[in-house]
Sequence to fold (63 residues):
Amino acid sequence: MDVTVNKPACVGAGQCALVAGELFDQDDDGIVIMLKPTIGPSDEATVRRAATLCPARAIRIAE
Ligand code: SF4
Fold:
């Protein structure tokens, strides 16, 4: 799984950090930060949940 975040699209809603705080954080402006450079199998379900909840569709998943 290849995960990228589209920072310009991020609106700082914080859903990703809320449901996947070990994978996503927000900077001082509320913009998403990825905390892990690679996503392992054990994190895939959590990433999918965060991507689904992101109102800006700023979390992109490539299989
Ligand atoms: S849920 Fe989406 S819009 Fe909100 S901080 Fe995360 S990436 Fe940005």
